[in-house]
């Protein structure tokens, strides 16, 4: 069942520059405190959805051109929301729950922890402070970051698709590719991400096969309130 769902998702999301990676809810819940658990049985089938560098041209620009008058909030969020919501149409006989990376619970916690989901699904390796043996940061707060084996840091985690009626007890968990494998490189990655994230150097910590275009870099480097103008939209 998981394979059929995965193939249908690839056929739907792949042409938009989006990737879907399967996982079991139990894998995710097992590594988090109860306050962050997803409220589904452990064997429930879920997919984490990533946007790749090609999403900008394959999905965002066509969406903006078509829906120009209907865009009233962040165009990328609205584009992803549109396409993931349409996924439900491909599964008329299944319940599909969608969670987006920007959604919050009433407690102000995120609905899901995106980087943890990507890691347990084997989509991208979530490098954290605990992955460095000789910690050089003392009492500084150090945030972790996911690195994709193909795109490095040139990608984003956009949402979850959950299939509450599909249980996959025998799904095997893939390990994420440990592509930043040396201590020195991991320290460099976390340093760049935490203290120099604006210059984006952390994204190229490995040799990548594809990165954002100059147009896309300019878009994401622009303050959100001014991005409408770059896309020819009025806010």
From TrEMBL:
Q: What's a GO biological-process term for it? A: cobalamin metabolic process
Annotated GO molecular function terms are: cobalamin binding; cyanocobalamin reductase (cyanide-eliminating) (NADP+) activity; demethylase activity; FAD binding
According to the UniProt record, one GO cellular component term is: cytoplasm
Q: What does this protein need as cofactor?
A: FMN; FAD
Alphabetically sorted, this entry's keywords are: Cobalamin, Cobalt, Cytoplasm, FAD, Flavoprotein, FMN, NADP, Oxidoreductase
Name the major location.
cytoplasm
Q: Which reaction does it catalyse?
A: apo-[alkylcobalamin reductase] + an R-cob(III)alamin + glutathione = cob(I)alamin-[alkylcobalamin reductase] + an S-substituted glutathione + H(+); 2 cob(II)alamin-[cyanocobalamin reductase] + 2 hydrogen cyanide + NADP(+) = 2 cyanocob(III)alamin + 2 apo-[cyanocobalamin reductase] + NADPH + H(+); apo-[alkylcobalamin reductase] + methylcob(III)alamin + glutathione = S-methyl glutathione + cob(I)alamin-[alkylcobalamin reductase] + H(+); apo-[alkylcobalamin reductase] + adenosylcob(III)alamin + glutathione = S-adenosylglutathione + cob(I)alamin-[alkylcobalamin reductase] + H(+)
Question: According to the UniProt entry, what is the EC number of this protein?
Answer: 1.16.1.6, 2.5.1.151
In which compartments does the protein localize?
Answer: Cytoplasm
| Protein origin, superkingdom | Eukaryota
The family classification in the record reads: Belongs to the MMACHC family.
- Which protein, by its recorded name, is this? Cyanocobalamin reductase / alkylcobalamin dealkylase
Q: Which organism is it from?
A: Pomatostomus ruficeps (Chestnut-crowned babbler)
Q: Provide the taxonomic classification.
A: Eukaryota, Metazoa, Chordata, Craniata, Vertebrata
The gene for this chain is: Mmachc
